[in-house]
Amino acid sequence: MMEQRVEDSALATRLAATANPQLSSSFFSVLPAEIRRMIYVEYWRHNCLYEDAGEHTSTGDSTHKYHIINKVRFGSTVRYTHSPCVVSDQNSHDFRMGRLDLARGQDSEVHTWARRIETDWAVHWPCEELYKNTTRRPQSTFMPALLTCKLMYRECIESIYENLTFVFTDTTTAESFIDLHPPPTLRSLELCIRLPVFLTELYCPPSFQHHPRVSSPDHPGFDAHDNPWATLCNALAHRITLRRLNIWLDIQNLRAWDERVWERRLLKPLAAVSVPRECFTLALPELGPLGKGRGEKNGRTYLEGEYLDRAPFEVKRAPRPNYTEAYLARMLANTTLLTIDAGPAHGGAT
């Protein structure tokens, strides 16, 4: 990643050295830089809009939000692409379980809504479907401006990073992209992440601090200070020009959040992020009632009381989807659909 940053810096230097000042263009020679920046913002607003977002999406600020996706799922190669975010507020009411309940008896609908509950894109499932169902991806709406000339390219790139919100649904893509763009470029980020359960196990009670390093098939030897979540938090902490940060968290596990997560330890690395508290939102699942798998006695300590008051972010809690119910509903629907597809059994003549 360091080599990539050096290459990008060299490219920026070459662009600055070889860019034509465009003195014959009234756009550059007459309009002040402040006016040009306002024009770029209006261009993003009116031209970077995806028209066919689907029936289950919301608009609002979504025209200024884009998912950053790594097209290469395995290995060290990084190939980013972007796709419109059509969810204006990831902290708004999550209606997926309600739709699953309404779909009972309609196996194809049950399967669809159960899959939407289980996806790692979580509340951004409409964005996932938009991205995956777009078979022929149109030319990026940014490209006409970026390809006009080197001078406009430099100004547009700066405007894009200053005025758009970048959305991520996994820790690795988020960390690599943030690390690739040093300050003061990125201003607004949104994370919607279902953490793998092995990551949450790293943040166990103090009595287990000497537990052997947890491994996963792809990433051996992680500990509480060296893992994708810690690396992402460190990358965020170094972005001192961030003006807005919205994080939505859950875990990839059927068990309840408060049975698997030690909140204060897991979220402690976020304390180093320098975003104004009123612009830093952390959305977490609701906690269960006291005395039922909760409390100091089992080492799982939560953001409550004075800890919540001292937190550098605003915490919003909401009911967590019932992943067990969604899983069982999908399995039952799959069985029924397979039976229908197979048709009635035909016995031979005797």
Automatic annotation (TrEMBL):
InterPro entries: DUF7730
Domain DUF7730 intervals: 21-285
A Pfam family recorded for this sequence: DUF7730
Domain of life where this protein originates: Eukaryota
Protein name per its UniProtKB record: DUF7730 domain-containing protein
Organism: Coniochaeta ligniaria NRRL 30616
Taxonomic lineage: Eukaryota, Fungi, Dikarya, Ascomycota, Pezizomycotina
